[in-house]
Task: structure prediction
Amino acid sequence: MQDNNEKRRNVAESNYNERLGKQDLAAAAIFFLYCCLYAVLRLSISSTMEMDEAEQFLNGSFLSLGYANQPPFYSWLVYGMAKLSGLNIQTIIATKYIIMFFFYFSFYLIARSFWNMRASLLITGTLFIFPTYAYEFNRDLSHSVLVTAMASITCYLFVRLLRREKTSDYLLLGVSIGLGFLSKYNFAFFLLALMLAAASFHEGRRTFFNKKIFLSFASFVLIVSPHVIWLYQNDYLPFRRALDKADAGTLDLSSARQILHIVASSYNGVLAFLVICLIFLGSSFSRRNLRNGYQSGLRLFHYLSFYGLIIPLLIIPVLKTGHFSERWLAPLLFSLPLAVFSGVNMLSNNRRFKLLGYLCVFIAVAILAARSFIGFFPDLSGKVERIHTPFRDVSQQLSQELAVRGIDDLRDITVISRSEFLTANVVACLPGAKFSLLSRDYRIIKSSSGNKVKVLVWDAVKKGEDVPEKYVPEFPSAVPLRPFKASYLRSSNLPPFVLGAALVQ
Result:
């Protein structure tokens, strides 16, 4: 009799796990559909690459242990995808939205470790309240998307370790941390917050100070060591550029107004999230629920969100950063919904939960509509973006001009410019062409060239149709070509875009 009861319990548990698997697959399908919609929209609007996309187009053309501006992991992914489907705008967009899918699904799996499917979908949906996740991720970000995905995956692995201290999970944790560091250097903010959070409660200390953590450390060192060596050999160039971008050392600590402006602009998404949660969930908070969440393992996110939001506030005055962006908080912000919902009674105020869910869906749809409106109707929206630049038209004119001069094989051409945006888009429109990217002092910093026919290009709207004076000392033999003009995509109000070009012997 007891054996029969045990068999029934095993069958019931098996059926329950099967249902859970189907539910999770349904959730994955929702996230996949969301990412596909944005990918299709982006490709439908324009084949012109944005700034980050242009950077990845150039970096993805060659494999390196490091690149000038950012860590290498994103570019490695683009390089690998390009080997499968070719290096083009479709590959760049597909790579980005595959990464974004893994971010949302891994976050869902974290929530699924504590709540049922519906609650987990609602909590995942609240990520859209943050402008960085809902808007900026889809507009023009790459490394920030990847580092956030790696932070979420790392969190999921740590939650698994809190429940079962398996050797394989410790190895995976080290791999995830290593890849996170190779995604973007602000992963260090997240890692420091995670370590402090783990050290702040008993189960976390038990997991973190387990002797198996040396496996995590070993796999981490194995992954990051080649890049660290590259950093040393290249005078830590990406670090220095990151500090320059943050205007490190320019903050006036005596100016309360400047400090308040930096903090307010960086944490406006946090404030919006907390206000909305107070409106919809305020009556559902209780100390009892918070205490139960504290005991169930969710305490990790109480500490993680606390340290994650405090650490940047301390770093701003230490580094005297005159510029700090909310997107740099991207690998930290996702811990806040988990911390907030740990104190909510998910069984009460069902109507308010539904309203919050509807709000999240509305935000997702509204931003999709906004991106569509800006993309297809830039004149009506009053916002012409870089993706509306008509590179295909001006590049075709350039190709025809070169053909008239007897240069009809694009594989013989090397495009030279100081702008990644110009270089990548012109090269993408001239299949087979190579490139040489110049630094501020006109040294070649990226190159796939070896061709004898070199074409110097520049934005003639900003620099004039003649060869810019700053180029003349470096390219004294440059022979100007006629300017190439075309109207901005889907726009008739703006003056035409003009591409300047010259042959360099």
